[in-house]
Amino acid sequence: MQQRAQDIIYTKQPYIEDVGPRRIKSIQFSTMSASDILKASECQVHLGQYYDSNKKAIVGGLLDTRMGAPNKHGTCQTCGGSFTDCPGHFGYLNLVLPVYNVGYLSTILDILKCICKSCSRVLLDEKLHKKYLKRMRNPRTEPLKKNELMKEIVKKCSSMASSKAVKCLRCGYMNGMVKKAGSVVGIIHDRSKLSDGYLEECKSAIGHTREARAPIGLATYILNPVKVLSLFQRMVEEDCELLYLQDRPEKLIITTVAVPPISIRPSVFTDGSQSNENDITERLKQIIQFNAKLRLELLEGRRTGIKYLIGWDELQAVVTLYINSDVRIPLDMQVGRPLSGFVQRLTGKQGRFRQNLAGKRVEFTGRTVISPDPNLKITEVAIPIHMARILTYPERVTHHNIEKLRQCVNNGSYKYPGARMVTYPDGSSKMLTGNYRKRIAEELKSGCIVHRHLEDGDVVLFNRQPSLHRMSIMCHRARIMPWRTLRFNESVCNPYNADFDGDEMNLHVPQTEEARTEAFLLMGVQNNLCTPKNGEILVASTQDFLTSSFLITRKDTFYDRAAFSLMCSYMNDGMDPVDLPTPSVLKPIELWTGKQLFSVLLRPHANVRVYVNLIVKEKSYSKPNKEHKKEQETMCPNDGYVYFRNSELISGQLGKATLGNGNKDGLYSILLRDYNAFAAATCMNRLAKLSARWIGNHGFSIGIDDVQPGKKLNDEKGKTISSGYRHCNKLIADYNGGKLALKPGCDATQTLEAEITERLNKLREEAGDVCMKELHWRNSPLIMSQCGSKGSPINISQMIACVGQQSVGGSRAPDGFIDRSLPHFPRKSKTPAAKGFVANSFYSGLSATEFFFHTMGGREGLVDTAVFLKTCLDRYLWKKIEPGTAIGAIGAQSIGEPGTQMTLKTFHFAGVASMNITQGVPRIKEIINGAKRISTPIITVELEHNSNVNAARIIKGRIQKTALGQVAKSIKIVMTSRSASIKVTLDMKTIREAQLSLDANIVRELILETPKIKRKLQRINVLEDGKLEVFPGGDRNKLHFELHSLKNMLPTVVVKGIKTVERVVIAQKKLDDAENDHGGPKYNMFVEGTGLQAVMGTEGVDGRKTKSNHIIEVQETLGIEAARKCIIDEIKGTMESHGMSIDIRHMMLLADVMTSKGVVLGITRFGIQKMDKSVLMLASFEKTSDHLFNASVKGKDDKIEGVSECIIMGIPVAIGTGVLKIQQRVDPLPMLDYGLDPIIS
Amino acid sequence: MEDIFIVGSGCKNFDKVSRIEARSERLELFMQLDVNTEVYPIKQEERYAVKLTTTLDPDGTPDTGYYNPIKPGSIADNFDYIMHGKLYKILDEGSGASRKVEMLLSFGGLLMSLKGNPECVTDFQLDQKYFLCMRKLV
C-alpha cells in the first residue's frame, strides 16, 4: 500500500491562479414561460406608482424594495443586503391578455406558416414529415445545417400556402397565407384565396348587420396572440422538434412580464427631492396603466371607436416598445417622450455590449499629450510626475526594499516619490494621507504591500489609438520626468503611427509581477522591433535622425579632433569609453571623416563585440548605365553603395534604406538578426542622441529661398511645358480631324485621354528632373528627399517647378458643368489647362482655375481615408491555432493595417490602356467578402501559340461577343402584298476581316437557337450567301407589331463568342530577359467579363494557364483549391500594386479560413455566422439583438471559449500565455480494499 | 609599395573631395583616389610620389589602429599628405597575361582603387590597415 505523497516543500510558493469561487463554464440561452418568471420573482408588481405620500417606495409598485435596495441608504427587503451587496430580485407583472414579444415575431411567423391554424399540426404530409424529422434528429447535423433545414421547411410550407389554400391533411381546415400585419405588431392570416364557401356565408351574414357600412377586411383574419397562444399550446413535441425549437413555442408569447431588479434601473435624485426614473421604469409604468385600462375594457365590455378591444393593441404597442423602442407603431399609440427599450440598451456603440462588455474601463491608466525626446532610450517612456503620483504599483515589502518603501510611506500621497496606500497581510489597508504616516512607516514589516508611486524602471504599457496592429500597444520602462507630457524616442513613432501635432496616448500600469514580466517579455519595444506583417523592421530611425546621418556620412564631411571627440561623446552622454580611431587624413592636418563617426557609433571601443557586415544600395546608387557597364559598387560616384565591414563604414552615404523602417536588410535588421535586440536598440539610442545634438548645433531648416527656382530652371521649365502643350494641341487637332491613331481596344476619346495623360505626366517628370538637377546639394528639401526622411522628388518639383496634372478618380478633372470642367473654358475644350493641369508651382502661385482643380484633387484624398475604417472593422476574424497564438488577429492586422495606407481606391491600368481593374480597398473588400458579382471580372488568357498575332485575333473573334447587328449590313422590314418579312443582309467583308467563320446558314441556326425569338418565328429562309429572310409567326392581326419587335430583337442575337464576355483585348506581353532570346513578341489576352469555363474551352486557348480574378467563378469552374490559390494571388496582387509587401502566410491563412468549409465563405456578417461562432461573439459584432433573440429560441449553449466571450465574461482568454495551465502529474491512488477478501478470486 | 603617379583627369562630385585618376610610371598602376582637395589641392599633370605602408614608424613597429599623434622622426615627415584606411577588397580580373588585380581601400569613406599587375600587389593583405603617403614632386 502506497503512502500519500507528502506535500512538496517549495522554496518559493508557486503562483496559482485565483479563479475565484465560481467559474462560468457556459451560458445557456433560453426562453422563459410565465411560470418560470413567477418562480424567479419575489413580488408582484401591479401598481403604476412609485412612492407613497411619505416619499417611500410603495409596496407592489415599481420601486418595491423587495426588488433590491433603492439607494445607498436603503436595504433590500428580500435578502437584507445593502446597495452594494444585493444584486437585486425580479418582480412579475401579469398581463390581462397575452401579447407578442416583438423579438420573437419572425420566429412566431415562421411557426405559424408551417402549422395548421386549426389543429396546430405541421402542414407537411406524413412522408415528408418523417423525412425531415429524420434529418433533423440526426445527431451529426450541425446547428447551422439544422437552421437551413428549418428554413427549407418554412419555405416549403409557405410556398404551398401562397399559391393556393392548403388543406390540412389531418383536420381538413383550409389554411391561407400568413404574413406580418403592416402597421401594427401583429400577424394576418390571409384567407382571401380560399373558396370553401365560408367567405360568402360570412359576407352575407355581415351584410345583415348594421355595421355592414364599415369596411371590414373579411378575407383576412387577424391572428391575435390569444389564438396563437392556444395554437402553440396544442403543438405536439414532434412538430416542435421538426421546426428546430428548443423549447415550447408558447414561451414566445408574453403573458407575464418580468420586472427587472431596481439595480438595473436605478432612480436618480435631483435636488434631493425630485426623482428621475429610469426609462425602463417609466415604460413599465405605462404597461401597468395600459394593462389596467384593458382590464377595465374587458370588464365593462365597452368599445371605443370602430375596433373592439383597442386597449389590447395599445398594450401590445407598449410592451413592444418596452423591448425595442425602435419598432414603428402607429402614431396615435405613442405616448410621451421617447424612452429607450432593452434592445437599445444593448446595441450600438454606446450599448452594453460594445461599451461595457467587449471593452471595459480599467484603473491605473493615464492619458495625455505626447512629445518627442531623443535623449530617452527607445524602450523608455517619460511620465510626468503628476501622473506618477496617481498611478501606483503595489510593491511587497522585503528586506531589500524596506528602506525605500519606508521613505515612500513617509512621503505620503502628495510628495513624489511617495505611496498612496499600505495593505497589511491580514487584508486591511490604510490610506497615506494623514499625519500617522510616520508611524506606519516605522511599523512597516516584510509582507506588507505598499502602493507606491511609479518610479524609474517600472513596467508600463503604452498605446495609441487607432490600435491597428499589435505594435500599437507596447511595453516601455517608465522614466519619471517633470512637466506635463508623455515623451518617448522618435524612433518608436512608426509602430504607433504617432506624431507630435497634439496626439495623445494612453498609459497602463500592470499591477502584478506576473503581468509585468509577461508584458515586458511579450510586448516590450525591444522584442517588437519587427512587424509580424512581413518581418520588416518597424522601430527604426526617422526624420531628423536620417537627415543628420545623411549629412554626417557625406563624403566631404571632415572633423578635427575636438569636433570629432565631442561628437563621440554626444552618443552616450560622454559616459562610455571611446577608442578614438586613427584619423583618415593625418597630414597636412588631422581630420576625421563622418563615416568614421559611424564606425565609432557601431563599435565604440575594442571590447564591444559587434561586427556588422552589411551591404545596402541607397536610393542615390548609380546603377550600371552606358558609361559604366559594370556595377560600380563602392566606387559609385554618388556614394550610394553602403558597405559596412566589421562594423567599419567603408563607403556609402547613409539614408532610409540603411537606417529607416520598412526593410529587411538594413543596419538594424542585421544587428537584430546577427546579434540581438539589445544591440539594435543601443545603436538606435546612440544614433538618436548623436543626431539630436548634432543637428541642433548644425542647424537644419527650410526657407523660401529653398524653393526659389533659378533663371535656368525657369527657362527650362517654360520650354518643357510649351513643348508639352504643343504636343497636346496637336493630339487634340488630330482628334477633332478624326486622324488620331487608335490604341488597341480604345475609341478615339479614350485614346486621346490616354495619350494626353501620358504626355502630361511626362511633363511633370521632366520638370521635376530639371529641378532636381539644378538644385544645390545644400537645399534642405533636396536633402530630405534624398535621405528619405521626408518628401519625394515630386513634392519638391511641385513646390519649385510645376504642380502637374490634378486627377479625380484616376482621370483628368471631370466636367462639373455642361461639356466643360469650369465655366472659364470654352465648351468641349480638352486642352491641358481646361482639364486640370496646373502649370504653376506652389512657389509661383496657382491661378484661380488651377486652384480649383487642385482642391478637387485634394478632396479625393480626404474622402478615401474615411472609407477605410469601415472595411477595417469588417475584417474581424479571430482564429486561433493550437500553440495559442492568435494568428487570425495577427493576420487580420497585417492585412487590415496597410488598408489605411491604401488611399488610392481608384482604378489602375492592367498593362493595357483602357482595361481597368478595381484596386485598393474596394478590391480587397470584394475578395474578402467573397462577392458573387465583382465590378471588373477579368480573365487572363494564355494562348497555345502566343507568338502569332493573327492566331490571337482569330481566337479573339471566337471569344468576343459578336451580335448580329455588328455583322449585318442591314436588317430591313420587307412588306409585299402577299407576305411580310425581315431581310437580314450580312456584311461578309467585315466577317472575313474579323476572321469570323460565319455565313447565312450558321446565322439561321443561331437565330433558331435563341428561344425568345424562336417563339415568334414562323420560318427562316436562306436566300443566298449572306442573306436571310425571317418570317414572323403568330397572330396575323398583330403582324406589324411582331415585325417591329423582331426587328428590334434580331440585332442582339449573339452570332459568335461567349455571351458573358464584354470585351477582349490582345496584349503584348512584357518580356523578361530570359524569354527575349526566343525572339518575337509574345501575346496574351485579357477578357473582360465572366465565363471562365467557356473561355478555357475555346480552341487555341491554353486552358491550363488561363486565370480569372473572379473567385466565386474559379471555385465553380475549377474547384475550391483553385479558389484558394486565386484568393491568395489576388490579395497579393492588389497589395503589391500599392507597394505593400505582406507575408504570404497571412494571405494563405485568410484563404484557408475562407475556403475551409468547401465553399468560399466571405468574411462578412453572413460568412462568419456560417463559420458557427458563439452567440456572444456575434452579438458583440453586429445585429446584437437579433442574435440574442435567435439564440434564446434555439436554446443555444455558449461555451466561453473564444476571445470575445472571455472578454465579455471577464475570464482570462485561452490564447497566448492564457493557454498554459500548471499541470501536475498525480499518480493514481492505490486501490484500497477495506472489505473481506473475496471468496473466489 | 612605392611609386610615382601622374595625375590624369579628376571629377568633382563633392565640394571638398575630388576623385582623381592617376597612372604610375614604374609599375603601370592605375589609381583612382578621393582626395580632400580643400586641404591638399591637386592639379592635373602633376607628379606625386605615393607610398602605401602599414606603419609610419621608421623601425617598422606595427600600428595599433587607434589614434596616436604623429611623432617627429616618423616616415610622415617625408610626405605632405597622409591618409589612413583599410584594404577591404581585392578583385581579380581576366586571366593569364591579361590578368589584372584591383585593390580597393577606404580611408574613412575616401576610396582608393589601385589596378595593375598581380605581382605588384602580392604583399597586400585583406583587412590590413594602410597609410597612404603622398608627396608632390616638383
TrEMBL record, chain A:
GO CC terms of this entry: DNA-directed RNA polymerase complex; nucleus
GO biological process, any: DNA-templated transcription
Span of domain RNA polymerase N-terminal: 250-553
Family matches, as Gene3D superfamilies: 1.10.132.30, 1.10.150.390, 2.40.40.20, 6.10.250.2940, RNA polymerase ii, RNA polymerase II, clamp domain, RNA polymerase Rpb1, domain 3
Entry superkingdom: Eukaryota
EC number(s) per entry: 2.7.7.6
Compartments in which it is found: Nucleus
Any GO molecular function: DNA binding
Keywords: DNA-directed RNA polymerase, Magnesium, Metal-binding, Nucleotidyltransferase, Nucleus, Transcription, Transferase, Zinc
Catalytic activity field: RNA(n) + a ribonucleoside 5'-triphosphate = RNA(n+1) + diphosphate
Presence of the UniProt keyword Transferase in the record: yes
UniProt-listed Pfam families: RNA_pol_Rpb1_1, RNA_pol_Rpb1_2, RNA_pol_Rpb1_3, RNA_pol_Rpb1_4, RNA_pol_Rpb1_5
Main location (coarse class): nucleus
Functional summary from the UniProt entry: DNA-dependent RNA polymerase catalyzes the transcription of DNA into RNA using the four ribonucleoside triphosphates as substrates.
Family label: Belongs to the RNA polymerase beta' chain family.
Protein name per Swiss-Prot or TrEMBL: DNA-directed RNA polymerase subunit
Organism in which the protein naturally occurs: Salix dunnii
Upper taxonomic lineage: Eukaryota, Viridiplantae, Streptophyta, Embryophyta, Tracheophyta
TrEMBL record, chain B:
Gene Ontology process terms (BP): DNA-templated transcription
Domain of life: Eukaryota
GO annotations of cellular component type: RNA polymerase I complex; RNA polymerase II, core complex; RNA polymerase III complex
Gene3D superfamilies associated with the record: Nucleic acid-binding proteins
GO molecular function: DNA-directed RNA polymerase activity
Keywords, comma-separated and alphabetical: Nucleus
InterPro entries named in the record: NA-bd_OB-fold, RPABC3
Similarity comment: family membership: Belongs to the eukaryotic RPB8 RNA polymerase subunit family.
PANTHER family given in the database record: DNA-DIRECTED RNA POLYMERASE I, II, DNA-DIRECTED RNA POLYMERASES I, II, AND III SUBUNIT RPABC3
Protein name in the entry: DNA-directed RNA polymerases I, II, and III subunit RPABC3
